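[Automated response] Your request has been received and processed.

Submitted sequence:
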Amino acid sequence: MNNHPILKSGFTLAIIAAVCTGLVAITWQLTNAHISANQQAWLERSLQPALSGLVFDNNVTESMITLQPPHGLPGSEAATIYRVYAGDRPVAALFLVTARDGYTGPIRVLVGINVNGSVTGVRVVEHRETPGLGDRIEANRSDWVLQFDGQSLHDPEPGGWAIKRDGGQFDQLTGASVTPRAVIKAIRETLQYFEANADTIFATRADADVQELD
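Generated structure:
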């Protein structure tokens, strides 16, 4: 039996595979830095709406803390805190947390909190809620999420941190109540965490150095 054609075919396939692998590696090296820069720019743009009206001078994305669960914030996965400073003075903290009980799944929420404990802004950054109903938690689909600006853990009082249907202060969404309940609960729990842990959050400043807390 002549095995030369089989060996030749195998050798050819090996060369093709090696060339393809090399091209993929080269492409990754050429595009990775660009992709990382785009991701960083997207993240910074996403954070800005939750910092409306604040004066600060640090690179927010470089003063980040990662909290591993259990951490007391909404969600069962790692939570992220971006610390905001003017000089060495704390200005605010941005929390990227997860509302676990959305209608169709978890909702990723960005909550900005001023050092005085008031909300600087809230934005929903990821969800799978129902189009035309629950998706109006997005700022580009309705102004629902803007009603939390300036609110704090004690304004309204704890009973007010609910939709009006449940006796609270906040508007609901027509045809959707589970979704806003989940977001409001996540905001309230984040405010509670901030009130209890603000000193620890701002205890150290480490620009350009990501920290991980237990």
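Summary generated for your ticket: Residues 32-37, 207-211 have pLDDT under 50 and may be disordered. The helical segments are 4-47, 178-201.
If you did not submit this request, please reply to this message.
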